[in-house]
C-alpha cells in the first residue's frame, strides 16, 4: 500500500498516509483533486468497487471528513480517501458519473449532513425524511434527545416501591 | 363631538356558516383545491348499538373471523411470517393476512413507527372498514422502546390511533402475539374492544396529535 | 396499430403522463409484494414498467445518531436491529471493529463459536428468503415448508443463546457462552431435515415449469454492471464472478474450513435462486465441519476492562463480512472517548434496492416485479438504518 501511495503522490497532493492493516489504508487528499484521484484509482490501479461514501462531522475543527472507500478485487485491498471540507459551506464535487450508486450516497449525505453536491441527479429530493423541517439530523450539533422530547410525548413512567407493590398484588384483600 | 348614541350602528350581517368550516365537516386543508373534491368531508361516527342479544351474536361472529392487515411497520413484523405459516398457523383461529385494508379487520402495528410510516398507518387505518381493531406488538409501539431518544420515531402509538391490545417484548415471541390475539377475541366477545368508536368520539384530539408530528400534512383529514 | 410504448430519446423514454396511455402507480409500502417496508413509484404502460423510483425511509430510526449518544457496549442492542433476519453479522462486525481499534486478539474457541453463529444465521436467513422467493411466484407450499424449518433453526438458537431473533451472542472480546450439552445432536437432526428439504425444493421449485418460465431471463445482471453499480454477494456471483469475502479476505476461521464459491452464469432471477440454494448446502457443510473440528475447551472471551467505562483509542477502521446479501461493512471512527464518534453501516441492499432495482425494473411486467425484488434479496432497514 505504501508503494501505491508513493506512486500516487507524484501526481496528487496526498498527505497523512495511515496503514491500518496490511489490506486497509487511509490517506488524505485536497478536495479539488479528489474526483480526479478517484477516477485515476478506478481506471489505472484497479480500485473498481466503491464500497461506501460517508461523512464524519468534526465539530471542534469545523470540518466534515468525507470518506471514499475503494476496494480492489485483484489485490484484495481497500483504500480510504479522506477529504476534508469546510463545515459552514459544505460543497463537494459529485461522483455520480463514476459509479451509479454514487448519487444515492450523495443524496443521503445531502439530507443527513446538508452537504451540497452540485450536478448530482436528484440530490435535492428528500430520500429518507419526509417533511423534515429541522436542521440536518446527523450533524453533531443537532440534539436528538431534545428534539424528541419537544416533539413527541413520552409515556409517563410508573415506578412502584417493590415491597409495597408486591403486597398490594398478593394480599390486596386484607 | 358626537354622542355615542347618535352614531348609526350598521345592521350586523348574519354570518352564514361556511359548510366546509362547519364543525360537522372537515376542511381537508392540506390538499390542493382540486384534490379537495376527491375526498369526502364527513367525519367518522360512532357505530350505533343494536339490541343486546343481536350485539352479542355479532360480537361472537366478529371475534371468530379476524383478518389481519399485512402491513409490517417495523421489525416486529418478522414474527408475522412464522405466525401465518405451518408452525404456528393462525388460520386455525380464523385469522389470515389480507393484502388490502378494505378486507382487513385487525391492524397489527409491528414495532417502531417512524413519521413517514405513521402517515401510511393513519391512512390505512382510516380505510379499514369497521369494526376494526388495533393490536400494538412490540415495546417500541408502546413507549418508544430503545428508540426513546430518536428523532424520527413516535413514542406512543396510542396518541395517534386507538389501540385495543398491547403485546410487550422486544421481539415478542409468536406465542405472545397469539396470546394477544386471544385477549383481543375475549375483549370483542365482551363488547369491550371499542377503539373504533373512541377514534370517532375523540377524532379532533387524534387529528391534532397526528398533525403535530406530521409536519407536511398533505392528505385528506379522514380517508375512508 | 399505434405504438403504445414511449419513444426513446437519449437513452430515456419520453412520455406525457396526462396522455392517458400511461399510469403512475405506487407499489407499497402497504403491499404484500414488497420486501419489508419500502415502496416503488412506478410509471406503467399496459402492464409493463417504464420507470421505477425506489422510495425508502419508512424504517429510519437514526441509528448512526443514536450510537453517538451511547457507550460502546450500549450500542449492541441497537446494531442487531439493523437487519432482522440476520442480526449476527451486525453483532460480529461491531464487536470486530471495536477489537480492531483496541488491538485485542480473541481466543481461538470464540472464533469457532462466532463462525458457527454466523453460518447458522445464514442458513436461517436463506430459508426465509427462499420462502419469499417462491411466494412471490405464487408457490405458497415452499414458503410453508421453509418458514417452519427456519423456526426449527431458531429453536436451536434459542437453546444456545436464549433468544429467537436477536441473539446478542457475540460480545466484544469473544462470545457469551458455550454450547449447551447435547446441542450438537439436535443441531445435526435439524440440519439433516433442512438438507432433505433442500433436495425437495429442487424438485418442487427449481424444476417447476411455471417458476422457470417466469424467472429465467428476469432482471439480468451482466458482469459489466457489477462494478458500475457496486453489486456484491450472490447477486454478483450469479453472473460468473468468483467473489466471496470468506475466501478473498478470510475472517475468523474461514481459512481453515473447506468450501467452494458457488457461481452461475446467466445472471437472472433463476440463477440467483440457484446460487443461493447451492449456498445453503455449503452452509450446511460448514456447520457440520465446524461442529466436528471445534475445540471443546478453552477460554470463551478475552478479559476486558470494565466495559461501561471502555475508552477506545483514537482511530478509524473498516471491517467487512459476507452476509447472505453480500458485503456487509462497518466503518467505525473513534475519537478516544467512551462514545463512538461515528459508525457507518454499509448494507448491501443499499446499492441493490436503490440504484440497481430502479434500472432492472424497466421493462418488467408488474406481476413479476415482486419476484425481481425478492430475487435481489433487498432488505430496507439496511438502506435507511
Ligand atoms: S420492540 Fe424491539 S423488536 Fe420490536 S420494533 Fe422495537 S426494536 Fe424491534
Task: Tell me what the structure shows.
The complex is a heterotrimer of chains A (174), B (224) and C (385). Chain A has 174 residues and is of the alpha+beta class. Chain A has helices at 2-11, 34-43, 102-113, 144-151, 162-170, and strands at 14-21, 24-29, 49-58, 63-72, 77-86. A five-stranded mixed beta sheet of chain A has the order 1-2-5-4-3, with helices on one face. The longest helix of chain A has 12 residues, at 102-113. Chain B has a single domain, classed as 3-Layer(aba) Sandwich (Rossmann fold), CATH 3.40.50.12280. In chain B, 33% of the residues lie in helices and 8% in strands. In chain B, α2 packs antiparallel against α6 (174-189). Chain B is globular and about 75 Å long. Chain B starts with 32 loop residues before the first helix and ends in an 11-residue tail after the last helix. In chain C, α4 runs antiparallel to α5, α4 runs antiparallel to α11 (269-293) and α5 packs antiparallel against α6. Chain C is of the alpha+beta class and 385 residues long. The longest helix of chain C is centred in the first third of the chain and has 29 residues, at 108-136. Chains in contact: A-B, A-C, B-C. Chain A binds chain C through residues 20-21, 23-24, 26, 48-52, 54, 56-57, 67, 69, 73, 76, 78, 80, 99-101, 103-104, 126-130, 137-138, 140, 142, 144-145, and chain C through 56-57, 60, 62, 64-66, 68-69, 100, 227-230, 232, 243, 248-249, 315-318, 320, 327, 329, 331, 333, 341-342, 344, 346, 350-351, 354-356, 359, 384.
Give me the secondary-structure topology.
The complex is a heterotrimer of chains A (174), B (224) and C (385).
Chain A: H1 2-11, E1 14-21, E2 24-29, H2 34-43, E3 49-58, E4 63-72, E5 77-86, H3 102-113, H4 144-151, H5 162-170
Chain B: H1 33-36, H2 52-63, E1 67-69, H3 80-84, E2 96-98, E3 106-110, H4 115-127, E4 133-137, H5 139-143, E5 165-167, H6 174-189, H7 195-201, H8 203-213
Parallel strand pairs in B: 1-2, 1-3, 3-4, 4-5
Helix pairs in contact in B: 2-6
Chain C: E1 8-9, E2 12-13, E3 22-27, E4 39-45, E5 48-55, H1 63-68, H2 76-79, H3 87-102, H4 108-136, H5 140-161, E6 170-171, E7 174-175, H6 183-206, H7 209-215, H8 223-229, H9 234-237, H10 245-248, H11 269-293, E8 315-323, E9 326-334, E10 340-346, H12 349-360, H13 369-375, H14 381-384
Antiparallel strand pairs in C: 1-2, 3-4, 4-5, 6-7, 8-9, 9-10
The structure holds iron/sulfur cluster.
The site of iron/sulfur cluster has 12 residues of chain B, from helix 5.
Amino acid at each position: 500500500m505504501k508503494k501505491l501511495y508513493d506512486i500516487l503522490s507524484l501526481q496528487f497532493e496526498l498527505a497523512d498516509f495511515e496503514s491500518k492493516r496490511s489490506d486497509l489504508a487511509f490517506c488524505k487528499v485536497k478536495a479539488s483533486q479528489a474526483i480526479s484521484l478517484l477516477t485515476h484509482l478506478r481506471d489505472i490501479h484497479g480500485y473498481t468497487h466503491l464500497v461506501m461514501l460517508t461523512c464524519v462531522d468534526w465539530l471542534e475543527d469545523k470540518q466534515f471528513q468525507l470518506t471514499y472507500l475503494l476496494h480492489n478485487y485483484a489485490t484484495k485491498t481497500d483504500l480510504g480517501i479522506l477529504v476534508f471540507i469546510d463545515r459552514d459551506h459544505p460543497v463537494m464535487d459529485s461522483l455520480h458519473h463514476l459509479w451509479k450508486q454514487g448519487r444515492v450516497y450523495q443524496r443521503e449525505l445531502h439530507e443527513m449532513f446538508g452537504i451540497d453536491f452540485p450536478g448530482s441527479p436528484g440530490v435535492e429530493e428528500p430520500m429518507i425524511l419526509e417533511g423534515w423541517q429541522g436542521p440536518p439530523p446527523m450533524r453533531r450539533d443537532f440534539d436528538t434527545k431534545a428534539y424528541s422530547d419537544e416533539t413527541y410525548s413520552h409515556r409517563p413512567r410508573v415506578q412502584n416501591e417493590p415491597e409495597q407493590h408486591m403486597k398490594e398484588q398478593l394480599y390486596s384483600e386484607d | 363631538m358626537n354622542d355615542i348614541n347618535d352614531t348609526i350602528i350598521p345592521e350586523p350581517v348574519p354570518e352564514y356558516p361556511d359548510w366546509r368550516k362547519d364543525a360537522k365537516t372537515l376542511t381537508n386543508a392540506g390538499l390542493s383545491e382540486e384534490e379537495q373534491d376527491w375526498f369526502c368531508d364527513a367525519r367518522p361516527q360512532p357505530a350505533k348499538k343494536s339490541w343486546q342479544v343481536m350485539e352479542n351474536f355479532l360480537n361472537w361472529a366478529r371475534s371468530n373471523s379476524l383478518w389481519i392487515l399485512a402491513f409490517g411497520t417495523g421489525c416486529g413484523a418478522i414474527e408475522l411470517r412464522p405466525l401465518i405459516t405451518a408452525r404456528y398457523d393462525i388460520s386455525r383461529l380464523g385469522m389470515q393476512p389480507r393484502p388490502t385494508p378494505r378486507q382487513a379487520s385487525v391492524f397489527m402495528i409491528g414495532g417502531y413507527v417512524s413519521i413517514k410510516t405513521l402517515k401510511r398507518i393513519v391512512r390505512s387505518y382510516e380505510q379499514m372498514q369497521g369494526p376494526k381493531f388495533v393490536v400494538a406488538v412490540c415495546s417500541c409501539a408502546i413507549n418508544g422502546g430503545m428508540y426513546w431518544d430518536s428523532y424520527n420515531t413516535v413514542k406512543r402509538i396510542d396518541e395517534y390511533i386507538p389501540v385495543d391490545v398491547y403485546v410487550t417484548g422486544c421481539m415478542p415471541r409468536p406465542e405472545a402475539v397469539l396470546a394477544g390475539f386471544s385477549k383481543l377475541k375475549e375483549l370483542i366477545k365482551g363488547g369491550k374492544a371499542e377503539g373504533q368508536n373512541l377514534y370517532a368520539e375523540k377524532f379532533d384530539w387524534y387529528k391534532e396529535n397526528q398533525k403535530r408530528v406530521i409536519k407536511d400534512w398533505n392528505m385528506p383529514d379522514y380517508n375512508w | 396499430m399505434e405504438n403504445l410504448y414511449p419513444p426513446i430519446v437519449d437513452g430515456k423514454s419520453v412520455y406525457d403522463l396526462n396522455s392517458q396511455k400511461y399510469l403512475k402507480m405506487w407499489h407499497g409500502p402497504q403491499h404484500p409484494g414488497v420486501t419489508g417496508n419500502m415502496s416503488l413509484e412506478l410509471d406503467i404502460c399496459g402492464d409493463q414498467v417504464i420507470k421505477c423510483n425506489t422510495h425508502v425511509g419508512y424504517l429510519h430510526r437514526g441509528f448512526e445518531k443514536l450510537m453517538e449518544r451511547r457507550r460502546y457496549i450500549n450500542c449492541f442492542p441497537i446494531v442487531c436491529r439493523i437487519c432482522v433476519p440476520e442480526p449476527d453479522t451486525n453483532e460480529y462486525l461491531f464487536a470486530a471493529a471495536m477489537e480492531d481499534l483496541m488491538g485485542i486478539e480473541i481466543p481461538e474457541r470464540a472464533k469457532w463459536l462466532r463462525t458457527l453463529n454466523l453460518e447458522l444465521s445464514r442458513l436461517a436467513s436463506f430459508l426465509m428468503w427462499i420462502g419469499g422467493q417462491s411466494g412471490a411466484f405464487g408457490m405458497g407450499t415452499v414458503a410453508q415448508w421453509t418458514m417452519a424449518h427456519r423456526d426449527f433453526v431458531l429453536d436451536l438458537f434459542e437453546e444456545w443463546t436464549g433468544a429467537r431473533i436477536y441473539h446478542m451472542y457475540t460480545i466484544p472480546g469473544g462470545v457469551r457462552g458455550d454450547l449447551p450439552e447435547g446441542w450438537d445432536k439436535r443441531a445435526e437432526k435439524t440440519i439433516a431435515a433442512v438438507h432433505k428439504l433442500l433436495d425437495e425444493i429442487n424438485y418442487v421449485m427449481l424444476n417447476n415449469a411455471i417458476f422457470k418460465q417466469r424467472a429465467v431471463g428476469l432482471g439480468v445482471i451482466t458482469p459489466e454492471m457489477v462494478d458500475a453499480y457496486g453489486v456484491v454477494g450472490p447477486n454478483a456471483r450469479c453472473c460468473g464472478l468468483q467473489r466471496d469475502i470468506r475466501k478473498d479476505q478470510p475472517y475468523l476461521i474461514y481459512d481453515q474450513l473447506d468450501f467452494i464459491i458457488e457461481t452461475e452464469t446467466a445472471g437472472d432471477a433463476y440463477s440467483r435462486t440457484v446460487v443461493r440454494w447451492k449456498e445453503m448446502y455449503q452452509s450446511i457443510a460448514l456447520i457440520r465441519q465446524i461442529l466436528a473440528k471445534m475445540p471443546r475447551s478453552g477460554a470463551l472471551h478475552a478479559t476486558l476492562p470494565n466495559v461501561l467505562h471502555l475508552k477506545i483509542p483514537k482511530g478509524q477502521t473498516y471491517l467487512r463480512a459476507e452476509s447472505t446479501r453480500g458485503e456487509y461493512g462497518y466503518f467505525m471512527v473513534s475519537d478516544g472517548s467512551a462514545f463512538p464518534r461515528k459508525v457507518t453501516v454499509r448494507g448491501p441492499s443499499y446499492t441493490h434496492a436503490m440504484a440497481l432495482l430502479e434500472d432492472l425494473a424497466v421493462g418488467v411486467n408488474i406481476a413479476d416485479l415482486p419476484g425481481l425484488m425478492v430475487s435481489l434479496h433487498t432488505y430496507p432497514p439496511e438502506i435507511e438504518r
